[in-house]
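All the exercises in this workshop are built on plain-text protein records. A record pairs a protein's sequence with a compact description of its fold. Backbone structure tokens are a discrete shorthand for how the chain folds in space. Once this layout is familiar, the rest of the handout is easier to follow. As an example, a complete record with its sequence and its structure tokens follows.
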Amino acid sequence: MILVMKFGGSSVANKERILNVANIIKGKIIEGYKPVVVVSAMGKTTDNLLNLAYEISKNPPKRELDMLISVGERISMALLSIALNDIGIPSRSFTGSQVGIITENRFNNARIMEVKLNRVIDCLNNNEVPIVAGFQGVSIEKEITTLGRGGSDLTAIAIAIELNKRFGNVKCEIWTDVDGVYATDPRIKKSYKFDKINFDMLIEMASFGAKVMHSRAVSLSAKFNFPFHIYSSFEKGGGTMVGDFLESPKIKSITQMDVVLIKMKHNNEILKKLTSNDIQIVLFQKLSNSIILVIKQSDFNQFRNLFESFESYHDKKFISVIGYGLINSPEIHSKIIKYPIEFLTISDLRISFLIDNSFFENILDELTSN
């Protein structure tokens, strides 16, 4: 059985962790699987490369950014292949372009158009383990492109779906630094773990701050009804199965996103500039002579390079409570309105709002209490 395994940046962050991943793969081979492995860049490599680029230029060309940041995954793939060969497991590493991840002609946030995989299949036929660089591909005009943040998840799911079309009975596992999907980010507050979770709920969670998966990857899985499993590279456990499951209205998740609230004078070019530079607008409000924008904190340095002047900015938390039947949940509403919140929105699947960082721990305790 073919098993697609994706290992995130924390799983391959240093030599010891790469050797650990090699042993995990070896264990799967002993169990009878034929692994196809997708890797992210080591640790904070992508962030460090981006920071270096913006130290050199306030507005680096998007093409050159993709050439630069695609290097991170190439380092990981080669080192992991070296580790596997060293323990007697034949392996070859490939870039996204080498295995045929064909994308649209767009830099920094390209969409996959076709997955060819001829070289991956050749490896499997030769009893070799193919190691694929995630997050990247090649455009129809033969330019190196990247898939956007978390794009290695998308690479793994796309490869698994294509292999499943050709051979059937393909499994996919996402290996990360947490042992599954939690109701809240376990790096911030320990809470209950889902043994299984519905595609729709995980899409909501990933779209509004949960870091366990890329939302586009989950959406692609849902489109083809292709289930996958999330495991930890660092501790044994049952992980979380993601699929088309029925869920109880009582099951809910709480996600948080670090954001910046910005007030600035209105300008017709603002939204156009943000969109063309792939800066996601979390919230937007137009006032009489100014606008209020909320963007991800990770995009703020790029925002400052684009707009030299604005009236004010404040760090905030964007909280989302995700579940079913939330529009008719007065007990949750009453907990939230105790606090000085902004931009409250309520739907059946989600309640979202902004709150000052100083209130974050208190409201999280309130929302996770029975």
